[in-house]
Amino acid sequence: MFAIEIEFLTGRVYATDFRERDVPEWPPHPSRLFYALVAAFYESGLENDLRNALIWLEQQKPPEIFAGDHAVRLESVEGRRFTDATAPRVFVPINDDYSSKFASSSLRRKERRFPSAWLASDRVHFIWQEAEPDASTLRALRRIASQVSYLGHSASVVRVAIIESPRDATLKPTPRGDTLLRVPTPGRLEYLDREFARSSIRQFRPDTGHVQRYGPIERREGAEASAPTPTKSFGEMIVFEREGGVPDRSESLLSVTSALRASLLDRSPVQPAPASISGHGDTSHIAYIALPFVNHRRADGSLKGFAIVLPRGLSETDQLIIFGALNGFTELRGKGGVKWQIRRCVDEVALATLSEYTWTKEARVWASVSPVLLDRFPKPLKTGESTSANAPEYKPGDSPEEIIADACERVALPRPQAVRLHKNSLVLGVPPSTRFRLRRRKNEAPRPASHAIIEFPYAVRGPVLLGAGRYFGLGLFLPLPALQTIPL
């Protein structure tokens, strides 16, 4: 085994994601580390025979990575705060163009962004499990690593060292992962030498190179868990992508989920369809959710697909019936103009919203992407009993926050330690709760609804679906980074 440790000495990273120029890159890509080692090698004037150590490194398989959580610097946009925030704008003097006859005016300024993030752990480990460098290669890499002073922007001051006992990795290369990281491949050093010789220092920009998919590593056996992961009412998600047809927005998600339920009732190989599909009776049954494009700076809330969420403890017979109903399911039609061409996602997906991991990964803080329908009406104090002239007060156990806390326990989640309600969601691209259609039928009695942010006492695994409309996609929550805190 061979491992490299990067310590961010300020507890902060400054680096630009190769796909989004104004959001931070995290975790650091293996290619970024490799480029830093190459730059340190040449800038420090080390002996040329050490170059073979870099050639050895580029020939190794992509490493596993240990990296903690991060929190981006937030920027206010029209009074809102959101999680996938871009870096604040700054205006800096442009560099003088010395190739021109006249130098640029020092009064000119150019808009720049310096994306950065706070780090939960200031150390990152790159781990090559199968690599075993010989003694001379190891000594050479130690010398080169000791010369690296920053990673990414020069403000990302780091210490780089070869270590013998790295932390357990959190990410591994996998063809079905959702995280895209640039990795070096054989011949990369030769490419960098060639392209650098053909361009000036200011114009040198290497191409993206090889991109590897990474996914999370499940906790190894024997590892101590920081807190229990509770059982939940919901388990596996079967995801479908909308390939064509009339697009729908988050506000009309009930039209999509109602059409989805009706389609599965008709397609069930057993008629009448069992309670696991219809939801009739007291037995556990599937939930129908729509998947919106959210949590991205370009998010618009449009529905990119849907998922069928299986309940835990579903019998083998019911599973066979459900999968039989989904066999050959290529078109979704329903009332309200729903007409989609669909395909089941069984391989890699381009959008994170269509990845099961996006909705199921562990987190302590969760924010709604569709409003929560309260299971019961809050009971305010009677006139004269309240001590507040502004905010309403409720009877003990009957506030909206406590009703949602009860809803968490109802689906076998822990009782949250904090709940905040607002008509706007913390997640970018989600419409206000007042714009959603909240009743499947006109004769249904209206219920109070709100977006919510929930903080559990420890990390829980999704999917998280809460409230009276959870079986039709209302009350769907998205996990937020561990350092994301609930705003007051």
Structure report:
By secondary structure, the chain is an alpha+beta fold. The chain has two domains: 2-91 and 107-216, Alpha-Beta Plaits, CATH 3.30.70; 234-479, no CATH class. The protein is 18% helix and 25% strand. The protein has helices at 30-43, 51-58, 135-145, 188-198, 253-267, 275-278, 316-326, 356-360, 400-410; strands at residues 2-8, 12-14, 64-66, 70-72, 89-93, 109-113, 116-119, 123-128, 158-163, 171-173, 179-183, 210-216, 234-245, 287-292, 303-311, 331-334, 338-344, 363-368, 372-373, 418-422, 449-460, 477-479. The chain has a five-stranded antiparallel sheet, covered by helices on one side. Strands 18, 19, 20, 21 and 22 form a five-stranded antiparallel sheet that branches. Helix 2 packs across helix 3. The radius of gyration is 26 Å and the shape is elongated.
